[in-house]
Amino acid sequence: MDTYVAPFRAFLCHALLIGLTFTSGCAPGDAGSPVLQADMPLHLEEHLDAAIIVGSEVRKSILQSIEWDFAERQPGWTSGPTESWPTLDTKVAQVDGALRVTLTEENRREGDESVRGYIYVDLPELRREEWSHLLVRARTDAPVEDMRIWFNLGERTAPGGWPSPFLYMGRNTPVVSDGVVQSYRFPAEPVWGEWKDPWKQLVLTFSADETASIDILSIMLVSKATVYGDARVGVREVKLGNGYRRALYTHAPGRLGYRLRVPEAGRLDFGLGVLGSDTPVTFEVEAVTEAGDSLALFDEAYGDNESWRHRSVDLSEFSGQRVMLSLVTDSETPGDIAFWGAPTVSGARTAGRPNVIFYVIDGAGADWMSVYGYNRRTTPFLERLAGEAVVFENAYSNATSTPLSAPSYMTSLLYSAIDRYRSYFDQIPSGVTTMAEHFGRVGYQTGVFVSNPFAATAKGLERGVDLVRVLDPDVPAVSSEHLQRAFWEWREAYPGAPFWAHFQTTDVHEPFRPKAPYSGLFITPELRARYIEWDEAVQWWDTTSYAAAGITVEQHALAQQALYDEGMAHQDHYLERFVERLKAEGRWGNTILVIASDHGYPAGSHRIMPGHPNDAPFIHPFATRVPLLFVWPGHIEGGRRIRTPVSMIDVLPTLLDFTGLPQPQMKQGRSLASLLLGQVTEEEWEPRPVIVDVLVTDGVSGELVGNIEVIDGRWGAALCVRPDDPEAEVRGAGTGDALTECTETVRERILIYDLLDDPLLQSPINEERPDLVEKYTELLEVQVEANAALRELIAGGGQTVELRPEQLEQLRTLGYIQ
């Protein structure tokens, strides 16, 4: 994110670099910086414009970025075979001011669908935590599919079970094959493998379906020192260890002074963090009262570059008083970077805005939940909770994968209105405001607890969040227990209210390993072991693979369904424990709880749907029908079920209405508040079509391709968006199964379905209903155009882009802009 820097203010009163005092006639409430109020939790990092800053000078000599410019040969970069991958001896040559990397059939491993190659450079044993990201400038017009960053050569088993010649896997991105120089950014941190070593080699790998070349123009390894060296103080989301915090950074020695009125039972909570320091940084908190008394409240030296340390300071002795509160850092090495993680002043609170908990069960399909009528008791607690909740019978996600859906419901915008999807790791643009930012800006304490990084840091959704916990990937099937524990630790460390929290658990995701007694609830250990063997041998889309494995589709599907159902029961149990504790601690009465999902899950549905369920449009229930329950004791009348179709992008505007916050300037969802609060009946409610948006950037043409679909009462429609030439090669960007046969075979441009008579979308009714073909073709084409117009506004920050009058009118008519 962009760094916000407060202007340096000369003190109106006498101030020293290391000591800050008030002389006669210069009390904390005098003219100068404003006096901050902490009626809601006060995030000091958000008020740098009110801070008095002394010192915090950037070190003149900092760790510089490393750049390799291939306008000339860079002899350090090389390639070669490895013991586990002898075909990986990649051809490299200096050509036209670039390093050309050529992948040939000789680089294809036996049984591999892709040809792969790599280049690497030896590093002088760097400390990885001191480096921010890698920038690669490259061009190609060949079908190179993918580029990935790796760390250190060595033998280790990679995800999927295949041997890897590299120790730590980083992020990947699809390659744009348009012949134009493109820039690719990779975070300098692994997404697989527990880091234990110095950084010895930097590796780039490439893959393609066939022989192909890519030209590398330059590679730059950017140091964190240069990132933080562009300002004396600023605010960023900072990762130390496995925890992210929104942090105020300074350069020691330095001091930030805040004039504030301390609330009743006031306290200051913060995290301590440092970057690349060989000696500890001293953190101090001081207060100067109106009477001029100076008190030292906190003093600690901290030098761990790999983790945060939480601390609290009691301010209750100053309750109701105006003080100058100072955050002070010092170090033996001037210029050391020090982090104050989410420094927050809070106090006693008896009324005000409600807490908000947005609990997303990743991959939870409504069809597999007994609260929605499924014949296995997978969600007995949610069945009981429904008596306190409003349950939406027909809620839909806006996409079928987390990288597309999470940014949508966090911004109330369809993904192709936010940005052009190019890879899993696209960061959401700064022109949109996330749910966390909406609540954080008005004083809510914000926390994110996920076991799927695409619901947070992999997409830039940590922006504006006080604390982010991303669970290690080795415990996804028991994530609820770990994430709830992290939540309660956060509430203990930052007890001020109100708070907003986002959960995203993966208990129902593969590898399906719930804890006892839910492990074994629906499947025997023997069948579980056989399923694991089957699953390695079959492909859902290839019926011949089942016969080769000696099983039927139904055997495999029923075993998979049982394992999924055990995960759902496990999740339901931990939801019950969570709600029980909210009630026991007295938080339930002033908390809004939303339980939902980011997308459905096919589970064993391939036994129900002819062919593979992913061959159907995405509006089939197993892909996009999700749970959606709202609970708000004393405000929402429970025990009601609403059949009107609604969208996950409706959640954000609804929560903003509930909490009295303004609506986004740009949104595509609508508030359900009046329906939930009983101000209108379901019969009086005017439904709107629900849009499912799975459009991604084609790696060949650079155009948006894929499906955009609609659920409109009884009717469903799926529009195929692809190049005009039906034979044109199309390569979707990093979406796994996110593209249907729309982009791979010749088919009708739009398919129309009767969702009442054909809920599994097996028989299009195009010939019977040409009127619907015309109606929904126009509706979805208008939607594509509207999304493109919003995308332009967002890219330009909503101010610098000139849209045609008809585009603006269209967006206003649709209710997408104010």
Tell me about this structure.
Helix 7 crosses helix 9 (553-584) and helix 13 (770-795) packs across helix 14. 18% of the residues lie in helices and 31% in strands. It is an alpha+beta fold and 818 residues long. The strands form 6 sheets. Strands 2, 15, 16, 18, 21, 23, 24, 25, 27, 28, 29, 30, 32 and 33 form a 14-stranded mixed beta sheet that branches. Strands 1, 3, 17, 19, 20 and 22 form a 6-stranded mixed beta sheet that branches. The longest helix has 32 residues, at 553-584.
Compact description:
This protein has 14 helices and 38 strands.
Structural class: alpha+beta
Uncertain stretches of 5 or more adjacent residues? 1-31, 734-738, 798-803
Radius of gyration, CA atoms, in whole angstroms: 28 Å
Largest sheet: 14 strands, mixed
Give the overall average pLDDT: 85
Binned, the helix content reads: 10-25%
Count of runs of 4 or more consecutive helical residues: 14
Q: What percent of residues are in strands?
A: 25-35%
Broad shape = globular
Q: Span between N and C termini?
A: 25 Å
Number of strands: 38
Descriptive keywords:
single chain; 818 residues; alpha+beta; 14-stranded mixed sheet; six-stranded mixed sheet; 14 helices; 38 strands; globular
